[in-house]
Amino acid sequence: MTSPLEVEVSGDIEKAFKNLKKKMAFEGIFKELKRRRYYEKPSEEKKRKREEAERRRLKKMRRMAVQQSRVRKVQKGPGREGQKPFGRVDKDTD
């Protein structure tokens, strides 16, 4: 069981309700309610969980690729387009 969501009400009910909805969305309560409206067969549940895991994996790979490209740009730095990268030694055979 999860801990109860609490929202402080200081005058404006609409704002408190909006904050509560935001917290509920962040906790995944709406998604869970939508999922539990109908019976989900065990095979469908396994398929859904497998697809969700695949989406998370692909998202993580995209984030890592972006992070790697940022690291490479920082390592190159400005004004080093024509120069060799750090730590690399090429031997000329002439």
Provide key terms for this protein.
94 residues, mainly alpha, 3 helices, 61% helix, flat
Largest sheet: number of strands, sense, barrel closure: none
The 3D shape can be described as flat
Total count of strands: 0
Into how many domains do the coordinates divide? 2
The helix-and-strand class reads mainly alpha
| Total of helices | 3
User: In terms of per-residue confidence, which ranges show pLDDT below 50 for 5 or more consecutive residues?
Assistant: none
Distance between the first and last residues' Cα: 73 Å
- Taken as a percent bin, the fraction of beta residues is under 5%
Order of helices and strands: HHH
Word description of this protein:
The protein is mostly helical and 94 residues long. The protein folds into two domains: 9-38; 41-76. It has three helices and no strands. The chain is flat. The protein starts with 12 loop residues before the first helix and ends in an 18-residue tail after the last helix.
In short:
By secondary structure, the protein is mostly helical.
What is the topology?
Layout: H1 13-27, H2 29-35, H3 42-76
